[in-house]
Amino acid sequence: MAEPIDSSAARIRIAYPRDGHETQGFREELRASLTETPRRIPPKYFYDERGSELFVAITELPEYYPTRTERSILEYRADDIVRASGASELVELGSGAATKTRILLDAMEEAGTLDLYVPFDVSEAMVARVARELADLYPTLHVHGVVGDFLSHLGEIPEGGQRLAAFLGGTLGNLAPAEARAFLRQVSASLDPGDSFLLGTDLVKDPAVIEAAYNDSAGVTAEFNRNILRVVNDLTGGDFDPGGFEHRAFYDPEHAWIEMRLVSLREQAVRLPGLDLAFTLARGEEILTEISAKFDRPRVEALLAETGFALTAWYMDPHELFALSLARRV
After folding, report:
1. Which of 26, 191, 240, 273 has the most CB within a 10 Å radius?
2. Structure pTM?
3. Longest alpha-carbon distance in the chain
4. Which residues are CB-neighbours of 265 under 8 A, at least 6 positions away?
């Protein structure tokens, strides 16, 4: 159900697709992942309000190159992207604080095509905040936010006109290969032929550069990683002790991805009543919280072709750290 909010009710709507079945689904997913070997927590559980704030802080760290590099590409190429897409509507999957999005919205406004922005994010507070901010910033912009999981709720995206869908930040790399292909097929199915898709991907490079981005000296990423346990506690009435875990992130060259894990500092019992689950973690036992795959152009192009897109432009920074791919829905 979509509901108008505050004084911008005429131009802002927020959709909340979750229901009781969805709540049961998250319980089943979380319970299944925590009983795997190794135990796992899907990365979407990073993003409560505190997790979203911590991630914004991560993007401003000197070691964390992806956000500022992607931003620099957007600043240089936004006019080209908007011109090539011909879009009047921007759909952003995993929108977060939508900081880089404003570069595209500015370009669309300058081109005289700006009509609708759809921020899609799991954090209700973030979607509502972004909707208010952007409605104030762009007086003619309509915002239709969706609070949900982009792996499950793409059907909540409203129908519209010529569209540019954006999936930025290298978030595709957080999905396992089969999951990434399935997700891109869903994105393709949600678009009309001729619509455009903008994909941000982190590129394969010196492993030391990659590892430094996930092991910052200020410890913000470590706090972000441990915060996922607080989110699980809040959702399940659980008693994970975040202070009982050490952050670990390392590059796996065989799979060309970073793995982020939480390492138990001692033997500890965990109870999660909302999942009807209890278990004991051994000292040194790890919980996988994230993978972050790194790509090159042939791999991205093949992945897009396999899932209903044709690559039309490839944009990189001068140091070849990050890439934006513009594709057309065929």
Report:
1. 240
2. 0.91
3. 60
4. 244, 245, 246, 283
**Using one digit for the tens of pLDDT, what is the confidence trace for 50-105?**
998 999 899 999 999 999 999 999 999 999 999 999 999 999 999 988 889 999 99
Burial of residue 99 (CB within 10 Å: 0-12, 13-18, 19+) is middle
String of DSSP letters for 11-33: TEEEE----HHHHHHHHHHHHHH
Tokens 């909340």 found at: 16
For residue 284, the tally of other CB atoms under 10 A from its CB is: 11
Give the whole-angstrom CA distance, residue 329 versus residue 315.
Answer: 18
- Nearest alpha carbon to residue 156 among 308, 16, 3: 16
**CATH label, 58-206+295-329, candidates 3.40.50.150, 3.30.300.160, 3.40.50.620, 3.40.50.720:** 3.40.50.150
Are the beta carbons of 271 and 239 closer than 8 angstroms?
yes
Instruction: Judge whether 84 and 58 are in contact, CB under 8 Å.
Output: no
> In angstroms, rounded to a whole number, what is the distance separating the alpha carbons of residues 114 and 107?
9
Q: Which of 258, 218, 168 shows the shortest CA–CA distance to 58? A: 218
Sequence spans of domains, the chain:
58-206+295-329
Bond before 273 cis per omega within 30 degrees: no
Per DSSP, the residues of 213-241 read HTS-TT-HHHHHHHHHHHHHHHHHT----
